[in-house]
Design a protein that fits this description.
About 75% of the residues lie in helices and about 0% in strands. It is mainly alpha-helical. It folds into 2 domains: about 45 residues, Homeodomain-like (Arc Repressor Mutant, subunit A), CATH 1.10.10.60; about 190 residues, Tetracycline Repressor, domain 2 (Orthogonal Bundle). Helix 2 packs across helix 7. The longest helix is centred in the last third of the chain and has 64 residues.
């Protein structure tokens, strides 16, 4: 017989998602209706041009020309091109947050909603990586340059994940514990599938699949029920003690995964810097070689 657990939203969870909604609307709440429409049009056109030309090649003049307005009018809504860049990136990330909120507040058990949440985020980033490379690169730039909107996005997603885990603990689907710590650990374990840069770098190295990683996290979060074989093997320990031991072991594994991912991110940054330095050196050698060749050819031409 299957027992269906109904999802009940706690007051704390409602407060978290309420704050998320307020933060998401903060940037445009003071604009009038007509100004909101123009603001939205500028963001939409900028996104279209970023998709076609790329972030660096798109100028404010390009955006203004597409909208049949002057650049000065665009600057009424955005003080600099960087603000337009941030608005487009916020729009992309906001769509991910909206879908995550729907899943977090939807039907189903906490394990089902947690799996659906991560699947939604992974699908959004991976689809954009495959079919919208220039917009994917925009998000990568926001991460590498540490734009403030990325920190805001990470906080919102952490709050949504924490809310799902807290509801699972309240319903008895997950073992009791610190939902905030559990959310950070689960996020660290699954970052390979949710971080735009790591999705791109490990596109061909998918031996650790998304389903297996989420299953690993659910084992760590789910209450452990020992088998008869476990009871016979260790009669001196209680079922609660064995469950606690497994919980501690699973969280220790997640902690190690988090440290590995942090080290991987650091080494990736160092590798990119090294490649860029070698590229600069190769360019310098090529310039010097061309100069030597020009010097050797020049006397022959004169004679």
């Amino acid at each position: 017989m299957t027992t269906k657990v109904q999802h009940q939203e706690s007051p704390e969870a409602g407060d978290l998602l309420g704050q998320i909604g307020e933060q998401a609307q903060q940037s445009t709440i003071e604009l009038g209706s007509e100004e909101k429409n123009t603001h939205r049009l500028i963001v939409d056109v900028a996104k279209k041009l970023f998709r076609q030309l790329g972030l660096q090649r798109t100028t404010v003049a390009d955006i203004a020309r597409e909208l049949n307005m002057s650049p000065a009018n665009v600057y009424r809504f955005f003080a600099a091109k960087s603000e337009i860049n941030a608005a487009v990136c916020r729009d992309i990330l906001g769509r991910i947050e909206t879908e995550a909120e729907k899943i977090a507040l939807g039907r189903g058990s906490a394990p089902q909603r947690l799996q659906g949440l991560f699947a939604s985020v992974e699908r959004s980033h991976y689809n954009r990586y495959l079919s919208d490379r220039k917009l994917h690169e925009l998000v990568e730039v926001a991460i590498s340059e540490n734009w403030s909107i990325m920190n805001e996005h990470n906080q919102r997603m952490a709050a949504i994940l924490e809310q799902v885990i807290a509801s699972g603990m309240a319903a008895g689907e997950f073992r009791q514990g610190d939902a905030a710590v559990a959310a950070r650990l689960v996020n660290a374990a699954c970052i390979r599938f949710c971080h735009p840069r790591l999705i791109a770098e490990y596109d061909l190295a998918r031996e650790v699949t998304f389903d297996r990683m989420v299953e690993f996290c659910l084992v760590a979060l789910t209450r452990y029920v020992s088998s008869d074989q476990d009871r016979r093997a260790a009669p001196e320990t209680t079922e609660e003690e064995r469950g606690a031991a497994l919980w501690d072991k699973a969280f220790a594994s997640l902690s190690r995964s988090a440290r590995v991912m942090e080290e991987l991110a650091e080494s990736t940054g160092e590798t990119i810097a090294h490649i860029n330095a070698r590229g600069d050196r190769i360019d310098r050698i090529q310039k010097e070689t061309r100069a030597l060749l020009d010097a050797l050819v020049a006397p022959e031409v004169n004679t």
